[in-house]
């Protein structure tokens, strides 16, 4: 499920394409700065100048991000933050990203990487146009891989989004579902909401209260879903609450940041960081 053949092939291609770039711009969701990063990237990119870009900073709890910024800096990354949907992307790339990378050649070439729904498509699509693409005829790049021109001295290499080779930690899976990077199977959807509900009760109770339009949340996640369905008037035949619709709507609005600022990742969640 998590690692189909085309993603495995994409990872292999990324290794090949690395020789054509001087640096890597890797996007993560600021709400899950560790979970939203395919951990294989650490080895893949270790010999390149690297920037970690915390995207969606406008819906992240910035107080909880200091640890992660320091963590990535300790790994040799430069760290930037933004909300790509709220800034001029071209200006951000030229005035911030370009100036952050060391300049070793006249033209700076940077690979853009990231798992689904962290903002990579927003960044790339903002630059696309007939005059901004170079496809296939760049040395070292096969047909279908795009060089995108930011300006005369700055090129981005778009790459396929990849996920983990395996999701070894259920917490990571649930966090990826909550931020919208993974489409859950039916049973996973409910487990992710249960995980999120318990997490919010402990760390961000105001998220649940906002989702219920000001009402205090109950103790049980399933009762929460019933209250959520009632607030939205999600009723199905038989005059029962439509829990399936409630779950899907809650996850969508949660991934869009409609209930408030949050960070799901805490260092104690991961054995490697203890």
UniProtKB/TrEMBL annotation:
<dbReference type="Pfam" id="PF01926">
    <property type="entry name" value="MMR_HSR1"/>
</dbReference>
<feature type="binding site">
    <location>
        <position position="161"/>
    </location>
    <ligand>
        <name>GTP</name>
    </ligand>
</feature>
<dbReference type="InterPro" id="IPR019991">
    <property type="entry name" value="GTP-bd_ribosome_bgen"/>
</dbReference>
<dbReference type="InterPro" id="IPR023179">
    <property type="entry name" value="GTP-bd_ortho_bundle_sf"/>
</dbReference>
<keyword id="KW-0547">Nucleotide-binding</keyword>
<dbReference type="GO" id="GO:0005737">
    <property type="term" value="C:cytoplasm"/>
</dbReference>
<comment type="similarity">
    <text>Belongs to the TRAFAC class YlqF/YawG GTPase family. MTG1 subfamily.</text>
</comment>
<dbReference type="InterPro" id="IPR016478">
    <property type="entry name" value="GTPase_MTG1"/>
</dbReference>
<feature type="domain" description="CP-type G">
    <location>
        <begin position="8"/>
        <end position="165"/>
    </location>
</feature>
<keyword id="KW-0342">GTP-binding</keyword>
<comment type="function">
    <text>Required for a late step of 50S ribosomal subunit assembly. Has GTPase activity.</text>
</comment>
<dbReference type="GO" id="GO:0005525">
    <property type="term" value="F:GTP binding"/>
</dbReference>
<dbReference type="InterPro" id="IPR027417">
    <property type="entry name" value="P-loop_NTPase"/>
</dbReference>
<keyword id="KW-0963">Cytoplasm</keyword>
<protein>
    <recommendedName>
        <fullName>Ribosome biogenesis GTPase A</fullName>
    </recommendedName>
</protein>
<feature type="binding site">
    <location>
        <begin position="55"/>
        <end position="58"/>
    </location>
    <ligand>
        <name>GTP</name>
    </ligand>
</feature>
<feature type="binding site">
    <location>
        <begin position="117"/>
        <end position="122"/>
    </location>
    <ligand>
        <name>GTP</name>
    </ligand>
</feature>
<dbReference type="GO" id="GO:0003924">
    <property type="term" value="F:GTPase activity"/>
</dbReference>
<dbReference type="InterPro" id="IPR006073">
    <property type="entry name" value="GTP-bd"/>
</dbReference>
<dbReference type="InterPro" id="IPR030378">
    <property type="entry name" value="G_CP_dom"/>
</dbReference>
<dbReference type="GO" id="GO:0006412">
    <property type="term" value="P:translation"/>
</dbReference>
């Amino acid at each position: 499920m998590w690692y189909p053949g085309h993603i495995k092939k994409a990872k292999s291609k990324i290794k090949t394409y690395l020789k054509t770039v001087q640096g890597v711009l890797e996007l993560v969701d600021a709400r899950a700065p560790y979970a939203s990063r395919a951990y294989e990237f650490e080895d893949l990119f270790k010999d390149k100048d690297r920037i970690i870009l915390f995207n969606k900073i406008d819906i992240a709890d910035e107080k909880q991000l200091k640890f992660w910024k320091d963590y990535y800096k300790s790994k040799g990354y430069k760290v930037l933050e933004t909300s790509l949907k709220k800034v001029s992307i071209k200006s951000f790339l030229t005035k911030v990203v370009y100036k952050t990378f060391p300049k070793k050649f006249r033209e700076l070439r940077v690979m853009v990487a990231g798992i689904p729904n962290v903002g990579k498509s927003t960044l790339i699509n903002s630059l696309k146009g007939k005059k901004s693409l170079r496809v296939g005829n760049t040395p070292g790049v096969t047909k279908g891989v795009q060089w995108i021109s930011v300006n005369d001295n700055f090129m981005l290499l778009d790459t396929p989004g990849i996920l983990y080779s395996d999701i070894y930690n259920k917490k990571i899976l649930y966090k990826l579902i909550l931020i919208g990077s993974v489409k859950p199977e039916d049973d996973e959807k409910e487990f992710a909401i249960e995980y999120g509900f318990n997490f919010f009760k402990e760390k961000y109770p105001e998220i649940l209260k906002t989702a219920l339009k000001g009402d205090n949340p109950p103790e049980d996640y399933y009762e929460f879903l019933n209250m959520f369905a009632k607030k939205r008037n999600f009723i199905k035949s038989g005059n029962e609450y439509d829990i399936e619709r409630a779950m899907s709507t809650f996850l969508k609005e949660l991934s869009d940041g409609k209930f408030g600022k949050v960070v799901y990742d805490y260092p104690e969640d991961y054995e490697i960081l203890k």
